[in-house]
Amino acid sequence: KNQVEQSPQSLIILEGKNCTLQCNYTVSPFSNLRWYKQDTGRGPVSLTIMTFSENTKSNGRYTATLDADTKQSSLHITASQLSDSASYICVVSGNNDMRFGAGTRLTVKP
Amino acid sequence: GAVVSQHPSRVICKSGTSVKIECRSLDFQATTMFWYRQFPKKSLMLMATSNEGSKATYEQGVEKDKFLINHASLTLSTLTVTSAHPEDSSFYICSAEGHLSYEQYFGPGTRLTVT
Description:
The complex is a heterodimer. By secondary structure, chain A is mostly beta strands. Helix content of chain A is 0%, strand content 57%. By secondary structure, chain B is mostly beta strands. Chain B has strands spanning 4-7, 10-13, 19-25, 30-38, 45-51, 57-58, 67-73, 76-81, 90-98, 104-106, 110-114. The interface between A and B is medium-sized, with 19 and 21 residues.
């Protein structure tokens, strides 16, 4: 069983709408959690990185939250744009390893 | 932000030949680099971790004699797919970890097609 579970698997929204992606993890001990955006055929690009003591971090229209007690994180996208269409990957690091979620494929339609 | 490049971006080779993929950290020194492969609509799968000047550490199930990794300097790691087969066709991505940061910077990926 994957130690990082993302939901939904895929999501379609209209341009301008907000959306929230979820990431639940069981990785322990916990070091940090990162959200990446990956365009099709490209490498992932970092959006946010949060350590144990951080509850929220923003990067423009992207806001990530972290609840280390419940081992849950979310990525909220505000006022979506067509260019937000991509896969969003949650990566959780422990002591010496990283665990990748399967990603959420977001499609923003005009 | 830090930049990681990969070369080539796309390569087509015949079955049985070897292919080398380069990963470079352009504006920082990377003590550790990682190699991943990714199948369509799937997440990244870590293949190996390479540290400059030492042997790579391979994930379970990854053949070290087939996927040769060389991390000869703090800015360059190479992945050589030896005796490539069609099932090796995939998207290969590297990432680099900075000495002073735990951020990982990913390369743009290399699309390998073995015919």
